[in-house]
Amino acid sequence: MDLFDILLNASFWAAAVRIASPLIFATLGELICERAGVLNLGIEGIMVAGAFAGWMTVYLGFGLWTGVLIAMLVGMAFGFLHAVLTVPFGLSQHVVGLGVTLLATATAYFAYRLSLPEVTSPPKIEPFQPFEIPLLAKLPLIGPAFFAQTALTYLAFALVLAVWLLLYRTPLGLALRAAGENPAAVEAQGLSVTAIRMGAVIAGSGLMAVGGAFLTMSAFSSFFFEMVNGRGWICIALVVFGAWRPGKAALGALLFAAFDALQVRLQQTPMGAIVPYQLFLMVPYVLSILALVFMSRRAEVPAALMVPFNKGER
Amino acid sequence: MSDRDTGGAEVVLRLSGITKRFGALLANDAIGFDLRRGEVIALLGENGAGKTTLMNILFGHYTADAGTVEVFGQPLPPGHPRAALASGVGMVHQHFTLADNLSVLDNILLGTRSLFSPSLGNAAARARVSRLAQDFGLAVHPDARVGSLSVGERQRVEILKALYRDARILILDEPTAVLTPQETTALFATLKKAVALGLSIIFISHKLGEVMEISSRVLVLRHGKLVGEVETARTDRHRLAEMMVGAEIAAPKVAERVPGPALLTLKGVETARRGNAPRLKGVDLELRAGQIIGLAGVSGNGQSALAALIGGLESPTQGRMDLAEDDGVDWSPRSALAAGIARIPEDRHRTGTVADFSLTENAILESYARAPMSRRGWMDWRAAEGFARRIIETYDVRCPGPSARIRLLSGGNMQKLILGRVLEAAPRIILANQPVRGLDIGAVTFVHNRLIAARDAGAAVLLISEDLDEVTALSDVIHVIYEGRLSPGFPRGTKTPAELGLWMAGQGFGEAGHAA
């Protein structure tokens, strides 16, 4: 059976892990924002801006890690805009988020056209190279899948643990979660809701941008329009799927990525010759919706998600 | 005056000249007083008198327009809860400031450590919390999710939060409004322990009995002004009530009246189980015209199931429900309304009103679909607003106008609007579920007199209340509810409060259950 051949092939799992990596960055970023009580719909645009900024930095001759840093700073700048409008000004998080997505996407495309007016096919950069982790990479099946990836993929998975530790093991994480549950509780304990929420949105947006940068710097090696292609929206669903928990959200990202890797391979089987390829493209989305239906029924939404907090208002 | 009795005890808190405006409303007008070590001050006043505003200024939620706060001789910088906490002021808010999805311990620890310290230090904190809990009699499990706690337990968490931060001055804003009598007793025991340990307490309330019991000094606020200051030992409930309202209060008078025919009869009614709430078991009840039927009982014994049933939100699984002239109706909110059953819901915020709707819209929530509020599918807003204006006038709803959002009203005024909405429809049966919970004396008297008037006009009133005094004062017939079962009806004056208390604790139901 073809399906078993695919599932027992290390390249399939390696692809799943690779596809999951940008989703993990951006999902963690969104999760941080939402845990603090702010829905960040700027995610899609911030990923585009991050993808462009990281790639451009490297194209201009700087190092790969400098590119990651610049992408993150650009993401944080858009995050700052989002945070100012939604936190102290208390504007609608939906409208601001969509606005930031449009602005960030358009800015990235504009900057691209401005800097490379003559180019028809976008230039490639030298991306992050995979490196094998000694011993572990020699494990059958999971070795090549998990331990022969690029540095950014390792970073993505390390961040899952880091964000979990931050949220559940530090005073900052506690304050952040409380800001998303009941900001009045945070205020009554002498902390600034505004500072915590703004910090969360800015930091989260930085992670989203790194997720975007992964696409240009570790996957496709160049920047082109529509490359983020709805991944940001998928990440919003993944946060819900993961019930606002980093570990579960990362698992969700892996699951989605596995479906994505699977559909590409299914297209190449004899079945793919008969069934229109568009149906295969639908597979990860359909399965994600089904998983979402079953997984998130009992999820505990942060109680103050999308509820602005105004100090001193009666 | 007060200097003589509290002697040389050190002044721990001094407010002077506190003034605060919200738009045109002068919420606090040059208020000043001292609080001494080991003293309990009661801050007494009607809803909207400015008590909570004053305390929010003290704690730094609001910034005063004028005036200063001194704690232990040091001026307190305005507008910073952190500064208030650091100087030893702890506040137990009326609407708890707890995060439901976090554990008790997390709620207590929030903000107690530097945000950038690497760990929460849970082990040491847990030990400290359980020691405080033991010292002050505040039993609560540190790992429980706050959302799963009872109201009384949540309040204990709020107090623990303050104690954990070494509060020396404890502000409690209407702490008993949400408590059962037993929980109130436990709270007072805790407060007495705290005072014995040298803490000072500001106790905000409008319940005179509690103020008399717990405080050593009473400050009375009215319309934002400090209108009186007396030692508790030298005053009584009656005088305090007069100071608070600014006029004499008359107790409601219920004249004898011969009851009319039964308007709604329940025979052997049972309802389906809903979660952990008790269901009704074999309930017999007769609501007669011109009678107030009181339902006494400790909260959570099936009151909500009965209210839901009579309000039409639930249908019986067994037994009969007969209206005066219409037997065995299909029970739904619409048919309950059609049968002339009007509802004063238990929770006016959650089910009684729509917070962001105007007074007009809230006034017609139950009548919008009928003439004169709407004709042929179109709203007649002029009629609706006229109706709202009539309620505002007749029921003395203090508000900016019919187009104001109801969110801005105090609880008492909100309740008056609901009362108007209910009574203006001239209902035959009135389901009054906790109609005066959280209201001040003036509003309580008003609501009670209106209910009595409706009864005198021939309506049947079912009064559900956890306040036994209220039930005995108003009811012609009293039933006790216990674990979903109803006691026989006791006519006015046939049972003492102590006897009713035994029924409330479940005595007498054993035999009744077997007999049925």
List the helices and strands and how they pair.
The complex is a heterodimer of chains A (314) and B (516).
Chain A: H1 2-7, H2 10-35, H3 43-59, H4 64-86, H5 93-115, H6 142-146, H7 151-169, H8 171-181, H9 183-188, H10 193-219, H11 231-241, H12 246-267, H13 270-274, H14 277-295
Helix pairs in contact in A: 2-7, 2-10, 2-11, 2-12, 3-4, 3-5, 3-10, 3-11, 4-5, 4-10, 7-8, 8-10, 11-12, 11-14, 12-14
Chain B: H1 2-6, E1 11-22, E2 25-36, E3 40-44, H2 51-59, E4 66-71, E5 74-75, H3 81-86, E6 89-92, H4 104-109, H5 122-136, H6 151-164, E7 169-173, H7 181-196, E8 200-205, H8 208-214, E9 217-222, E10 225-231, H9 237-245, E11 262-270, E12 283-288, E13 291-296, H10 303-310, E14 318-323, H11 333-338, E15 341-344, H12 348-352, H13 359-363, E16 374-375, E17 378-379, H14 381-394, H15 411-424, E18 429-433, H16 441-456, E19 460-464, H17 468-474, E20 477-482, E21 485-486, E22 490-491, H18 497-504, H19 509-515
Parallel strand pairs in B: 3-8, 3-9, 6-7, 7-8, 13-19, 13-20, 15-18, 18-19
Antiparallel strand pairs in B: 1-2, 1-4, 4-5, 9-10, 11-12, 11-14, 16-17, 20-21, 20-22
